[in-house]
Each structure stands twice: as C-alpha cells, then as structure tokens.
Amino acid sequence: MKNLVILGGGYGGMRILHRLLPNNLPNDVQITLVDKNPYHCLKTEYYALAAGTISDHHIRVDFPEHGRLQHKYGEVLSVDRNSKQVIFAGGETLSYDDLIIGLGCEDKYHGVPGAQEYSYSIQTIDQSRRTYRKLNDLPAGAIVSIVGAGLSGVELASELRESRKDLKIKLFDRGKTILSMFPERLSRYVQGWFEDHGVEIINCANITKVEPNIVYNHDEAVHSDVIVWTAGIQPSRVVRELDVEKDAQGRVVLAPQHYVPDDSSVFVVGDCASLPHAPSAQLAEAQAEQIVLVLQKRWKNEPEPESFPQFKLKGILGSLGKKHGFGLLNEKPLMGRVPRLLKSGILWMYKFHNG
Predict the structure, then answer these.
(1) Measured at the alpha carbon of residue 43, what is the angle toward residues 269 and 112, in degrees to the nearest 5?
(2) Which of 11, 68, 169, 237 has fewest C-beta within 10 Å?
(3) How many CA atoms does the CB half-sphere of 105 hold within 13 Å?
(4) Element (DSSP H or E) covering residue 231
(5) How does pLDDT run across 253-284, given as a tens digit for each residue?
(6) Which family does the record claim for this protein (predicted)?
(7) For residue 77, which of 267, 266, 241 has the smallest C-alpha distance?
(8) In CATH, what class is 109-231+315-354?
C-alpha cells in the first residue's frame, strides 16, 4: 500500500482531501494527514477570533473521514528526503511514498529586536486564542498597537474597534497611505473608515525595537498595553530548513508540476511554495487542484501534465467590522456593504461545503 502523506490540514491540504475522497483514491493508496489539530482551521478568520467577535467553534471544520485516511497529530521536526521519512518532535518517524508539504507560514520579524518576545500573533489558532485572552482582559482605555497594516492588520484593527470601543487602537503602517497596493480610491476609503471610527493610523512607520509594553517607531517610544504583530510572514521553520532551492522570500522553487525539481515525490502547496501571486487561501486551493491532477496521472502510469494554465484568481475581499468591507474583483474596486456580504457568503459556503 502506497502512503501519500499530507503535512498540514490547511486550505491546500483540505482541497486535496476533498478531491481524492471518497471516490478518486486508488485502491493501493492510503493517505496520512499530519496536523497539530484534529480539525481544519479557517485561518482567514483568526482576526475575528482574536478580537472576540466570533467563538472558537465558528472557525473549525471537521476533516473528512474515509477508511484509507489516517490522522497523525503531532509537531513535525524535519523531513528526511533521502530516507523518505517525516521526523516528529520526540523522534517518531513516518514513511511516505509521496509527500505534500502544506505547513503554512509564521510571522516574520525582520530582525527587529524584541518583536517576537514581546508581541502577540494571529498566525495560528493557538496564538489567536492567546491574543484574544490578552486583548479582552484589558481595562477600559488601554492602548493596543497593531504593527503592520496589511490585510490581517486592517481586519484585526477594525474588528477590535467593533468589539472593544473603549480601547485606543494604533495601527502602524510602513506606507504613506494604508493598503497602498490597492487602488487609491479603495485605500482612501479604508483610511477614512478608520478615521471615522477613531483608530489612529501611523503612516511611514519604522519599528526599530520592541520592549515590554513599548513599541519604538523611528526609535521613539510608544507605550502600548498590548502589541500585536501582523507585519509580514515567512515559510514554516521545517521548510526554511529544507535543503532545496528557494526564492528571495524563502519559498520553495518548484517544477511546473508543483514538486521539488530534483525530487518528484515531494510537493509543496500554499504559503511555502514559490508562486507568481501573493500567498492566499484561494491560491493554495487552486494549486491543490493541479497537484491532484499530477497524482492521478502518476497513479495511472500516464504522462504527467508538462504545464498548467495560469492561475485565475477571482480577487480579494477584506472586512471592516461586520457591516463594511472592501475588495478587488476582476480588478474592480468594491467598497461598503457589498464586499462584506460577499465575504460572509463565501465563508458560509466554504463551511457548508467542507463541513
């Protein structure tokens, strides 16, 4: 029996499972899913969990069940490609015939002293829970500094404003305007929403150091009762330590079939893969579809696709609390209630379909 091992039950791993199960898995292949948690987590909603506007069970989806799907819960220490084994913390090993690495990303601290030690995170469900407890235990009038005004920082700041109107929220942004990668009209809309709702945006920020309850912007100390870091991501430690070619962001360079060029048994999906788009759940799912096609061809002893068409991503949606949002769909800016309703609908459909 061949063993297909999937490291990580994120968006890419879940899409692969749903495409292979229950009827598209050959009789001589079994799947072993490795994850720290016994459920799939909706990472795109961690900001709301941390802000306290949704409960934990709202962002959990059960993994599928199948007679030839095994679950292994634990922390992956490394991958030994020579022996084709996954090594776990504690020394236990798991052999594979084909391996799909979808371990996601971690915060990137850009070498800022104290950033990792003295800030909170929303990168994992465990970290988001800790951030929730810290934020919601704050007294009235406490200061929350959110470092990084990308999509995660913007959504966390806006959701926290609705959850805790008594808090003083500071959002530090490196750019001259917030969300500078979006069209100017959309950027101005988001900036205006924050101004109307009393969230202080600090543009052209440069965080040089973090100490307990202090974030230094251009070396100027800013008191903060809680500091949340949303200022960049990097591939997981296991991938960073993998001896393969990587791009400038540390993501694995892949063959067109999404496996390591010198090792066709190791695929990489999602945030750890070097792809021509910014990491996202949508991108991970699109890549997973192509990985499934490669595996099916391989199992049938048919030639693998030499190439794939470019990914067609539908766009991006962000929330500003529960009633407002923003986004780009087919390069068209959307602002107000419509993008927020669209995002809620997509989330509901995802949970309904996968659950």
Answers:
(1) 85
(2) 237
(3) 30
(4) none
(5) 999 999 999 999 999 999 999 999 989 999 99
(6) Belongs to the NADH dehydrogenase family.
(7) 241
(8) alpha beta
